[in-house]
């Protein structure tokens, strides 16, 4: 029933003539059954709790790298995160390792492991600057987004980069050949201006066109195992500002924001503001909501998990919250506890709280 419906809707949406009649008809593949299951599970999960996520969780941690089955989160509480994120930065250079020196072969392996646990994988993309050759944070040139859109000088180069991303996502498969669903979250924190796709570096229309080009290109290359997340920073003050660069309900499955604590009162205030915004938009646009990145670098507050983070989010129906990485190469750059860290005891309380969900609590592909 679900399948038949999906195929029908997929075909209808894909082949419907555009309003102008100018655009060529596009035939896109419907989502794979596992991707549909992930979408349904994400819609339902907030009635059970909030999934905990951690970036690069099983790739490395404090004092280790690449150990089979190891995870700082698991070492502390006994279970893996329900969500693990990985970064594709560098795939567009045909590099064998991403920008944080994790081999793409290892990322693939860990994506399969997380899928087999019944947990979710999400992918960010800190890609390089296609115009200057600099990194994602190179914001000196304000014409980069324009240059990669159709008709721009770097369009062909960038189109090739999307082919590399499509190739990677299409290659995520189990041994039996089932494609593994992932949540792709490109062009994030665009309401700030620290990435070349940021607010001061392109117009709302250019940003939205970038999104549409990205999704259209992946769909045209047969990528049918992906959901898409739109995630701002904490700049939006209301729903209008949040939606100013929103590319459209037909492209996006999950809406969220990234928020890091520096000063507690500011963190709590921005948390409430952005959660209210995404909760309201989530309801009117029928979208899943999430805290797509969060954290307090170095977790200097030993009770941060149960006295700040959980109370801030628990009243909102977010599907997940994800903390950033435990960098093995930068001693103070960690966002999850590891054995001996000051917030371990509190994190175990957070883990035991009925509201939080870890890998053993979820089975997203049933
Ligand atoms: C940032 C930092 C960087 C890293 C980047 C992409 O927030 O963690 O060290 O390269 O994310 O993972």
Summary keywords:
366 residues; alpha/beta; 11 helices; disordered N terminus; binds beta-D-mannopyranose
Write structural notes for this entry.
The structure is a single chain. The chain is of the alpha/beta class. The chain is 36% helix and 14% strand. The strands form 2 sheets. An 8-stranded parallel beta barrel has the order 1-4-5-6-7-8-9-10. The chain has a two-stranded antiparallel sheet with strand order 2-3. Strand 4, helix 4 and strand 5 form a beta-alpha-beta unit. It starts with a helix and ends in a 9-residue tail after the last strand. The N terminus is likely disordered. Beta-D-mannopyranose (BMA) binds next to loops.
List the helices and strands and how they pair.
Blueprint: H1 2-15, H2 33-45, E1 50-55, E2 60-61, E3 64-65, H3 72-77, E4 83-87, H4 104-116, E5 120-124, H5 144-148, H6 155-170, E6 182-184, H7 204-220, E7 226-232, H8 239-243, E8 254-260, H9 264-285, E9 288-295, H10 304-313, E10 320-323, H11 344-352, E11 356-357
Parallel strand pairs: 1-4, 1-10, 1-11, 4-5, 5-6, 6-7, 7-8, 8-9, 9-10
Antiparallel strand pairs: 2-3
Helix pairs in contact: 10-11
The structure holds beta-D-mannopyranose.
Largest sheet at a glance? 8 strands, parallel, barrel
Structural class: alpha/beta
Q: Strand portion, in percent? A: 5-15%
Bound molecules: beta-D-mannopyranose
Poorly predicted runs of 5 or more residues: 1-24
User: Numbering strands along the chain, what is their spatial order in the largest sheet?
Assistant: 1-4-5-6-7-8-9-10
Following the backbone from N to C, one meets helices and strands in this order, namely HHEEEHEHEHHEHEHEHEHEHE
Instruction: Using the alpha-carbon principal axes, give the shape.
Output: globular
**Averaged pLDDT:** 94
Rounded Rg:
20 Å
Helical content, roughly? 25-40%
Tell me the total number of β-strands: 11
């Amino acid at each position: 029933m679900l399948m038949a419906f999906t195929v029908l809707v997929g075909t209808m949406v894909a082949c419907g003539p555009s309003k102008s009649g100018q655009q060529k008809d596009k035939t896109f593949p419907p989502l794979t059954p596992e991707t549909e299951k992930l979408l349904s599970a994400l819609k339902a999960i907030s009635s059970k709790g909030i999934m905990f996520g951690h970036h690069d969780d099983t790739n490395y941690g404090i004092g280790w790298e690449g150990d089979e089955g190891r995870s700082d989160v698991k070492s502390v509480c006994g279970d893996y995160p329900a969500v693990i994120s990985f970064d594709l930065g560098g795939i567009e250079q045909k590099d064998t390792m991403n920008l944080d020196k994790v081999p793409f072969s290892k990322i693939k392996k860990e994506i399969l492991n997380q899928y087999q646990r019944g947990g979710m994988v999400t992918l960010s993309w800190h890609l390089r600057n296609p115009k200057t050759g600099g990194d994602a944070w190179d914001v000196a040139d304000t014409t980069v987004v324009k240059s990669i859109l159709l008709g721009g000088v770097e369009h062909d180069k960038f189109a090739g980069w999307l082919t590399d991303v499509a190739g990677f996502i299409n290659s995520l498969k189990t041994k039996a050949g089932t494609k593994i669903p992932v949540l792709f979250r490109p062009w994030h924190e665009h309401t700030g201006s620290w990435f070349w796709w940021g607010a001061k570096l392109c117009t709302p229309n250019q940003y939205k066109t970038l999104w549409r080009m990205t999704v259209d290109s992946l769909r045209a290359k047969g990528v049918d195992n992906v959901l898409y997340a739109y995630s701002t920073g904490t700049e939006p003050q209301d729903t209008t500002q949040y939606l100013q660069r929103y590319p459209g309900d037909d492209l996006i499955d999950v809406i969220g924001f990234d928020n890091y604590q520096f000063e507690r009162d500011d963190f709590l205030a921005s948390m409430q503001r952005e959660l209210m915004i995404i909760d309201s938009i989530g309801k009117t646009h029928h979208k899943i909501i999430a805290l797509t990145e969060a954290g307090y670098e170095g977790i200097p507050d030993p009770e941060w998990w149960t006295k700040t983070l959980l109370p801030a989010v628990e009243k909102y129906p977010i599907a997940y919250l994800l903390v950033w990485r435990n960098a093995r190469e930068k001693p103070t750059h960690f966002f999850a506890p590891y054995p001996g860290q000051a917030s371990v005891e509190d994190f175990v309380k957070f883990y035991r709280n009925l509201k939080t969900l870890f890998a053993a609590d979820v089975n997203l592909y049933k």
